[in-house]
Amino acid sequence: MQKVKIPVTLDPVRAAQKRSSYDGVVPLKNLSRLSEQLLDTSGEVTVRIDCDIDEQKLVVLSGEANCDVQLSCERCRQPMNLSLHCQFAFTPVRSDNTALDHIPERYDVVVPDEHGEVNLQQMVEDELILTLPMYPVHDESFCSASDQLSSFGVVIDEPEKPNPFAVLQELKKK
Predict the structure, then answer these.
(1) Which site in 108, 125, 139, 163 is 20 to 30 Å from 101, CA atoms measured?
(2) Would you put residue 37 in left (φ > 0), alpha (ψ -120 to 50) or beta?
(3) Are residues 70 and 40 in contact, defined by beta-carbon separation less than 8 angstroms?
């Protein structure tokens, strides 16, 4: 099957009326904010987007994105591979729209630009960034830092302090 590039932008209303589906790829190097976090940007993100109108007559852009990325382990600073997978469902609303209270929780909101178009690559990039772990680390059994001692310096035993309630306990015995 031929890999087709996902369009950068699309008109969500027109695409939903046509019940359009997009199945293709986005090069990782095109996703600049995600690429800042990665060691290697030579891969691709596999993306599927379905455009539809739901029961409430809301335009919905739903789909999923998958990719394999290479990050730096926070413990040992060695490269680590990670598979990212995210599912999403967006509904476009204008920034002046007061009907935000009536949008179901299962949909995220996306604001179209002045031409009524949505940036698909930015939507996918946002979702992938949200799936990145805050602190990427290898599994402890594979991490080279787990072999090193995890404490630094010398721990000095503190002398035992008398219990401040010991006086009360003596009074209670009398």
Answers:
(1) 125
(2) alpha
(3) yes
According to the model, what pLDDT value does residue 96 have? Answer: 67
Per mean pLDDT, which range of 26-35, 146-155, 157-166 is the poorest?
146-155
Residue type, 70: Q
Supply the pLDDT for residue 148: 55
Model confidence, pTM: 0.76
Among candidate residues 104, 118, 103, the one with its CA nearest the CA of residue 51 = 118
Displacement of CA 4 from its chain's centroid (Å): 24
- List the one residue out of 40, 10, 20 whose CA is nearest residue 124: 10
From the number of C-beta atoms within 10 Å of its C-beta (0-12, 13-18, 19+), residue 6 rates as buried
- Would you state the structure tokens that stand for residue 37, as one six-digit string? 């976090």
